[in-house]
Amino acid sequence: MKPALPRLHAITDERIARRADLDELVTRLGSIGQPIALHARGRTLTGREHYQLAVRLSARPPARLFVNDRLDVALATRAAGVQLPGAGLQPTDARRLVPDCWIGRSVHSLDEARAARDAGADYLLVGPVYHTTTHPTVTPLGLGTLGDIARLGLPVIAIGGVTPERARDASRAGAYGVAAIRAIWNAPDPRESARALSEAVG
Q: Which burial class, exposed, middle or buried, applies to 191 when counting CB atoms under 10 A from its CB (0-12, 13-18, 19+)?
């Protein structure tokens, strides 16, 4: 039986993967008092680098390892979850290899969310909900679309421009939890930022 899906997801990128203080940060993030999912993600990382990042993120329980894009890395590290891109492997196919993992799908519209649900995803990573510097030219979905997606019945993790105040609004709109990159890793105090986001979504 899978453990509960964390409500807070901290997602890495290539720059974070190479931070000298990553191990210390992971230890601090794991001590916020609530479950947190740490996503090993880095689109330009080699397979070895992605695996090494996942190992580092998994070495500090109670934080839970999720792996983005790389099902082989998720298998090798016995990750708690795998995050599939919209154009990637279908959730039903992934489940044959990782039956005990949380299998998420990244979606950017209500139609994509319906397709992911019908394809067997366990949860949806939905965004960007707000304007974000990560994707400055992308029109945000807004809370209305987020609510429509949440009503499909799967746990929804909102991403994109999330702050504690916006996390509360997303939760009221139906989001199960939130995910962030810069709002956590770039914060003056990443642990405090993670704690505030976690409290905002309950």
A: middle
